[in-house]
Amino acid sequence: MTINDYLKQIDSVIADGKYKDNWQSLSGHKTPDWYYKGKFGIFIHWGVYSVPAYGNEWYSRNMYNERHREFEHHINTYGSQKDFGYKDFIPMFKGENFDAAKWIETFKNAGAKFVMPVAEHHDGFAMYDTEFNRWNAKEMGPCRDVVGELKAECEKQGLTFCASNHRAEHYFFMGIGTSIESDMKPGTEWFDFYAPAYYDPEVGDKTIEACDTIDEFGASEEFMQDWMVRVCEIIDKYQPKIIYFDWWIQNQCFKPYLKKLAAYYYNRAEEWGAEVTIDFKHNAYPLGTATLDIERGSLGEIFPYPWQTDTAIGKRSWGYTKDNEFKTPYDCVTTLIDVVSKNGMLLLNVGPKADGTITDEETAVLQGIGEWLSVNGEGIYDTVPYKFYKEGEHAASSGMFSEGNVEYDEHDFRFTYKDGAIYAFQMKPSKKVKLNSFYTIKCGICIENVELLGGEVESFVCNENGLSITLKNEPAGDMPQCFKITLA
């Protein structure tokens, strides 16, 4: 099918479907129940950038930027950028140990309910079988349809399959390579891998920052149509239950295409009998038409719409790097609790190695999360926020890229609610527990029972001074503990 054929199909599906390409129609879209109830999913950044494994997943751009350490590293390790370009990593990206079944089993054991591989990152290399990009993992590198294999295993093992597409940023992502002596020259047989490679010499290496301005540096109509068709191909071929976009789609040039794409996707989902959504950042979509995503950060209060935090186990990079640093199971679990208490979901990233194996560090973190959720998941899955989300002084910062280690103590709690029970998560466990938010004199709360998930409560008293709980034993470790407070 040609791009023009696909554009006609998109228009036809919208014309015949329930959803039209306007915000009023799209505002009738509902957050999927499976997503809201599941709370926890796995993001996967795996691509050609895992071969150099240096800096971060932006190696494809930074290796051409003289102001970044990747530039000198590349020359010292592989040679000049004109003799060894990013494209030359593709034959080295073999994925010889990639095992989709093992990956999905690992994610399932971690307690995840949905899985989202990056189908195409900013570098322009597609990890799926596509008619519209000859630079793809089915034809090169691993020579396997990575996305297709992961979808098949998700279906076998009972997880929900989703997909991320970062093609939008490719419009300008590789552009700086055209400003130096490199392999990135128009007219070469491989330039379509890097193209369009938009670059403004007056702005220089700040082109990306300039593109963040909503009304500047809009992409061409040709690129926009190609972008939309490529995303719709993923929708039709793989039927992901979420399509996730990174940041640049807030630019005004995307607005008519965002409406068309959402209407097409939601109408296709109606045909499948499936619940789907789109994850977006900034203000790309109006609230109520798709799901807001906050990258490496949080919201400060309970949000009226379901929303998502996406973050990574790796602190320095989303993709695999040799010198990455990693969060602990405690870091990830406390993030999950905090996000869910504010009406959110967590998408937690892993970055596999070029050979297709997941790092030992990330595997250990996933195992730790799974062990904790096997005991405490009752207070996470299928819950809603309570009247207030926290007690205690310590809280995560609000906004994108605001995450950091929060030094919780035994006075910090987060709350969720389900079926007549409040779930109170003590972020730092102690044997004697005091909840000041629950008391009898004003709020008139009546408690039937207090349980410690995975442990034993020796006694509890609720009076005008609050709810006091004494455990039978000292906490076994430093992971958060969850109290189920059943209301009378």
Unreliable stretches covering 5 or more consecutive residues: none
Summed over residues and divided by their number, the pLDDT gives a mean of 95
- Radius of gyration, whole Å: 24 Å
Report helical residue fraction.
25-40%
> DSSP strand (E) fraction?
15-25%
State the helix count: 14
C-alpha geometry: globular
Q: How many DSSP E strands?
A: 17
First-to-last CA distance: 62 Å
Task: Give the spatial strand order of the biggest sheet.
Answer: 1-2-4-5-6-7-8-9
Structural class: alpha/beta
Largest sheet: 8 strands, parallel, barrel
Describe the structure.
It is a single chain. By secondary structure, this protein is an alpha/beta fold. It contains 14 helices and 17 strands. The chain has helices at 3-16, 23-26, 33-38, 59-62, 69-78, 100-109, 146-157, 170-173, 191-194, 207-211, 221-238, 255-272, 329-341, 360-376; strands at 40-44, 114-120, 160-161, 163-165, 242-245, 277-280, 291-295, 307-312, 344-350, 384-391, 413-418, 421-426, 432-435, 447-452, 457-463, 466-471, 481-487. The strands form 3 sheets. An 8-stranded parallel beta barrel has the order 1-2-4-5-6-7-8-9, surrounded by 4 helices. The chain has a 5-stranded antiparallel sheet with strand order 10-11-12-17-14, covered by helices on one side. A 3-stranded antiparallel sheet has the order 13-16-15, with no helix packed on it. α1 packs across α12 (255-272), α6 (100-109) packs across α14 and α11 packs parallel to α12 (255-272). The longest helix is centred in the middle third of the chain and has 18 residues, at 221-238. It is globular and about 80 Å long. The relative contact order is 0.12. The mean pLDDT is 95.
